[in-house]
Design a protein that fits this description.
Blueprint: H1 2-6, H2 10-25, H3 29-59, H4 64-89, H5 94-111, H6 113-128, E1 136-139, E2 142-149, E3 153-157, E4 163-167, H7 168-172, E5 177-178, E6 184-193, H8 199-212, E7 223-229, E8 234-243, H9 247-265
Antiparallel strand pairs: 1-2, 1-5, 2-3, 3-4, 6-8, 7-8
Helix pairs in contact: 3-4, 8-9
């Protein structure tokens, strides 16, 4: 492919120069008017095509960034077609022109290979829409709220108010986790309680705290069950649904309120400890 594009012989270049020189040597008013009319016709056609494409994008509710990029790319392509039409009328061989444009395009693409990768990733993100501005996501190894989805970079605001620009090529090639796309999320908590406490009392205590919280949802019903028998504690798993914006409020509230309820009910949360016993060795009497 590269050999075909770069196979421009001196004869081809000389033929092109002679064709252009011959055209200008025979230039007259009729040819000038024809070139002007040809150029104006291409310009009018270009504007009509761009307006039709813009209307179609508006009806499809396409992302603004993608709309702008496609509009600019289409404009460049139409200008190149206009140039080819005018040069073809002037007698410039199209094979030589296309070959030169191919070499130029290849050189540019190799020079900006990384940028093109990010650009392709940006188009993929804008078309597939795995997230939008305002969503909290983990993408490209970074977690944060999406501030802006651009063609080359996506800006994420972290919880400590740092804005990180992540290359779209990196995002599109990795797993994307969107925590805001669904209307509801589930809070999962695990509590370790002493073997000395009655399991039914522990479950009832957890349920009472969940039932009193205004941000907890009860469809589906909250799940509270004994889930594991550990070395020094029995684990109880709590699963309760809430609206996505209320996730962290409910998460931290339940941790604090269930711990307070355990203390009030005398329910013990064991912790790792080491008991050391010192045994005195008595000397034998001979």
């Amino acid at each position: 492919m590269l050999t075909n594009l770069t196979n421009i012989t001196p004869e081809d270049a000389e033929e092109t120069i002679q064709s252009v020189s011959g055209f200008f040597s025979n230039l007259n008013l009729q040819k000038i008017i024809t070139i002007v009319l040809l150029f104006l016709g291409c310009m009018v056609t270009m504007k009509i095509i761009l307006k039709l494409v813009d209307r179609a994008f508006i009806r499809l509710e396409m992302e603004k960034s993608l709309h702008t990029f496609i509009h600019a790319a289409l404009r460049v392509i139409l200008w190149l077609l206009t140039l080819c039409i005018v040069l073809d009328y002037m007698g410039v061989p199209m094979t030589s022109l296309v070959a030169m444009l191919g070499v130029l395009g290849l050189a540019v693409s190799l020079a900006i290979q990384g940028t093109l990768s990010n650009l392709a990733g940006g188009i993929q993100i804008l078309v597939s829409k795995p997230f939008k501005a305002g969503d909290y996501v983990e993408a490209g190894g970074v977690g944060g709220t999406v501030k802006e989805v651009g063609l080359a970079y996506t800006k994420l605001a972290t919880v400590d108010n740092k804005v990180i620009s992540v290359p779209n090529g990196q995002i599109s090639g990795e797993k994307i986790t969107n925590y805001s796309s669904a209307e509801r999320r589930r809070v999962d908590l695990v509590f370790g309680v002493s073997y000395d406490n009655d399991p039914q009392q522990v479950i009832a205590c957890i349920k009472s705290v969940v039932g009193a919280h205004p941000k907890a949802l009860f469809t589906p019903e909250p799940f509270v069950r004994m889930s594991a028998l550990k070395d020094s504690a029995i684990e109880y798993t709590l699963r309760v649904w809430c609206a996505t914006p209320d996730y962290w409020d409910l998460y931290f509230d339940l941790l604090e309120q269930i711990k307070a309820a355990f203390d009030q009910k005398g329910i013990e949360i064991p912790y790792n400890q080491l008991d050391v016993r010192i045994v005195e060795k008595k000397e034998s009497v001979s």
